[in-house]
TrEMBL record:
Protein name as catalogued: Insulin-like growth factor-binding protein complex acid labile subunit
InterPro entries, per database record: Leu-rich_rpt, Leu-rich_rpt_typical-subtyp, LRR_dom_sf, SLRP
Pfam families the record matches: LRR_8
Signal peptide positions on this chain: 1-21
UniProt KW Repeat keyword: yes
Keyword entries, A-Z: Leucine-rich repeat, Repeat, Signal
Repeat recorded as keyword: yes
Length: 503
């Protein structure tokens, strides 16, 4: 694959992926100690555990351990009362966490994962006064071990992903006074009681559960900045997000939300909003207060017709993904998006498109209109230009590009593959001095002498034309390559030879 082609395929919106794993693990810890002076004990001392200081926080890893006791004796012998920055158990073979399980060592961060813990004693974590971070990942928990958790006065970050929790109750985290980061992702939650979450929470993940209703449980978490609710069964949000005045990142992807109403009215700080894979059919005024929003993903919803005011107020928006909807009309909806850089309209039902729709987008650099039903571009009298660098028009029904591409004077790459184009015009591409790649595969392109000249001109301009017809019949390959190629004496039947492409 050529570099240029690769360039075209570079992830369209590589900008930001809002997944929980993106949260830097130690982001929220209040005490960030430098571990420059930390020295790992020799492997022999810790066996069967191992110690490493890379990448950042020194960590003691213990895999497949049968008895916590032996580990403790070894750790105690080396560390005594010195804190162990991070202690991790994976595939633990012990059955449960007994009373005061870690009392003889001073641990700052503790993780147990991929283990089948049958029980956790109510005072399992007793004495862990300095524990900042606790992760119990995929350890078969059925209930939040609230009594044990109440003994962790310094806990800032609690992660219990991949367990079998089905309910969060009012009292479960009642004593987690310092908790800022909570992940209950990948459980079986159906019930969340009102008042379950500490008001000081900054990050909350409830993604990948079975929640139908938020039950007013997250309203007015005024410190909340990151909220992950993706992969649930949420139907409506009305009132549920009230008072989330600090929220910056909100992931609601893969739910069953049909309409947004006024549920976002307080989200004035939100910068990233993921709504893909829902059932949203209209926007109304729902987005109007999101003046800080930078990226909006509405991919895979049910939007059919946009209205002129849908995106009013989104003056900071840089990326808008509307792919996979049912759009037939845009109606000038993008008029207020003066900061928009990336617009994805692919996989919709647009039959025609006018440059007018995007002409206010003076910062637009990427435009994707692939997989629509475009026949033509409405002609325009005035020729304003935009700084668009890449245009994707593949898999439409275009038989002409009209003047469309000539609005983009810094174009670098364009994909017009799998359309109904019979001829190419050099001016469509050579308008931009920066263009170096055009994909034309899958078009019924003519192979006559005029077109040969077009290809020749594109070659001369160093533009790679990917998928061009080979024109190898009737001495054409030689003719194609012949720079002093003359048009005299060629029959018409040869001129209109059409190369048919199979999709
Ligand atoms: C929007 O969501 C779709 C579906 O999950 C994804 O393929 C696409 O990359 C997302 N767009 C952005 C801008 O992240
Ligand atoms: C753990 O070590 C830290 C740092 O030396 C100390 O401040 C803290 O009191 C110790 N915690 C316990 C429970 O011994
Ligand atoms: C909603 O919260 C109340 C308590 O505030 C609780 O009784 C009820 O079961 C919860 N319902 C759901 C669906 O979470
Ligand atoms: C925007 O915020 C104001 C005041 O905070 C509120 O009254 C209004 O209803 C909100 N508008 C929308 C469309 O949510
Ligand atoms: C190229 O064209 C010239 C004159 O038009 C002709 O003499 C020459 O044989 C051609 N070369 C090929 C390879 O067709």
């Amino acid at each position: 694959m050529s570099d240029n082609k690769m360039k075209l395929q570079i992830l369209f919106f590589a900008s930001f992926v809002l997944v929980e794993g993106h949260m830097p693990e130690h982001y929220l810890e209040t005490r960030v100690t430098a571990y420059d002076n930390f020295v790992c004990p020799p492997d022999l001392v810790l066996r069967p555990c191992q110690c490493t200081t890379v990448p950042d926080i020194p960590t003691v890893h213990c895999g497949g351990i049968r008895s916590l006791k032996t580990v403790h004796i070894n750790l105690r012998a080396w560390f005594q009362d010195d804190p162990i920055p991070y202690l991790k158990f994976v595939d633990a073979q012990f059955e449960g966490l007994p009373s005061r399980a870690f009392v003889s060592v001073n641990v700052t961060r503790l993780q147990i994962r991929d283990s089948n813990l049958k029980w956790i004693a109510p005072d399992a974590f007793a004495g862990m006064r300095s524990l900042l971070l606790l992760t119990l990942h995929n350890v078969a928990l059925f209930n939040l071990p609230y009594e044990s958790l109440s003994q962790l006065p310094s806990l800032v970050s609690l992660r219990l992903p991949g367990n079998k929790l089905h309910r969060v109750s009012h009292s479960d985290l009642g004593e987690a006074f310092k908790l800022k980061y909570l992940s209950l992702a990948g459980n079986k939650l159906t019930h969340v009681d009102r008042g379950s979450f500490p008001i000081i929470l900054v990050t909350l993940s409830l993604s990948n559960n079975c929640i139908r209703s938020l039950n007013k449980s997250i309203r007015y978490l005024v410190n909340l900045e990151w909220l992950f609710l993706n992969d649930n069964r949420l139907l409506r949000l009305e009132g549920e997000l009230d008072g989330l005045h600090s929220l910056k990142q909100l992931n609601l992807a893969k739910n069953s939300i049909g309409s947004l109403g006024r549920s976002f009215r307080d989200l004035k700080q939100v910068q990233e909003l993921y709504l893909q894979y829902n059932a949203i059919h209209e926007l109304g005024t729902s987005l109007h207060n999101l003046s800080q929003l930078r990226n909006l993903n509405l991919s895979m919803n049910r939007l059919g017709i946009l209205s002129y005011t849908d995106f009013d107020g989104l003056t900071s928006l840089e990326g808008l993904d509307l792919s996979g909807n049912r759009l037939t009309e845009i109606n000038g909806a993008f008029n207020s998006l003066t900061n928009l850089r990336r617009l994805d309209l692919s996989k919709n039902r647009l039959r025609h498109f006018s440059f007018d729709e995007i002409s206010p987008l003076t910062k637009l650099t990427i435009l994707d209109l692939c997989d629509n039903r475009l026949h033509r571009f409405s002609p325009l009298p005035a020729m304003s230009t935009l700084p668009v660098e890449r245009v994707f028009l593949a898999r439409n029904k275009l038989s002409s590009l009209g003047q469309f591409l000539r609005h983009f004077t810094v174009l670098e790459a364009v994909d017009i593959s799998f359309n109904h184009l019979r001829i190419l015009k050099a001016e469509d591409f050579t308008m931009s001095p920066r263009i170096d790649y055009v994909s034309v595969a899958g078009n019924p392109l003519l192979c006559d002498e005029e077109q040969m000249l077009v290809y020749h001109e594109l070659d001369t301009a160093n533009i790679e034309v990917d998928g061009r017809p080979t024109c190898d019949d009737v001495g054409y390959s030689a003719a194609c390559k012949n720079r002093s190629f003359s048009t005299k004496g060629l029959s018409n039947s040869v001129k209109v030879r059409v190369i048919n492409w199979k999709k």
